[in-house]
Please model this.
Amino acid sequence: MRSLAPVGLAVLLAVLAMSGCFKDSSKSPSSKKTDSHVATSETVEDTPASKEAAEAEVKPAPVDAPPAAAAPAIPLAGTSQPQAAPATPDQQTKETLEPNPLPQTALSAPAASTNKKSGKNADAKAPARSIAVVGDSLAVGIGMTMEQHVKQYEGMSFHSMGKVSTGLINKKSFDWEKKLTELVTREKPAAVVVMMGGNDANNSIAGKAPGTPEWNEAYRQKAENFLKIAADSGVKVLWVGLPVMRDPAYSSRVQGVNAAAKEACSKVTGCAYMEPSPLFADASGNFAQSKEIDGKTVSLRGKDGVHMTMNGYDLLCRQVLDNLAASGTVPQQQ
Model:
């Protein structure tokens, strides 16, 4: 028994020594650091706030304003804008008198609509009767007022085709013979009202000066050729004579236009000539700026001494419709 005591004591001391080593190892600084790093890493991955922070780093910042190079949508206050050059007298006349151009399809035959069930074309015919007004800026004025009056006639359509700065002489700017041919071919109106010659009265014809007998004869031939286009298609024409003008020399040349047009009209079937309206002249036949109508002074002529006011055009339009009614083209006015 005594011989085993030292051995047992040695074994016990060895066990105690090994137990102390494990305790010291678990408390080492390196182990604590490693555990702390792992715990911290797991906390970052599991925290929602940390996820949002990570996502925010890759999302672009919202753009609150357009790039500096983008032009502003509206002019900035206080900045000056370029001013348009003032319109010339001719441009002012065009802006005042010339209506919006008609669509190119206005004179085309109306397209027939198709009935999907039967496959047949539905009836899409234009009104059986129509009136067209052609000529220069004076015709533009008539057209603007006549368009309103024609609305009273059931089944009657209207084409306002007046063109500023045109005539029968200068075909380069506008060819009225070509335009009339297109009109009577595609539309074949019941009547065409013509008022032109104001520009022609200032242009020579093959070296012949306006206001001379030679010019008058040359213009008569041009007017006759123009009117025959309508006659060959069986379309009636009413040529409206130009009123007296304020400038005496110009008014004299205009009278030559009227005389040539009247003679041409007498040679063409279906053409009637309407004498210049006395509305625009005084008792002596001279230019009248205004007239006394129903006890009131009414301005009838424009400031240029050539064109008319809208009151003037309206009164002239009524006389034109009276002439068309007399020929049976339109009903009598109400």
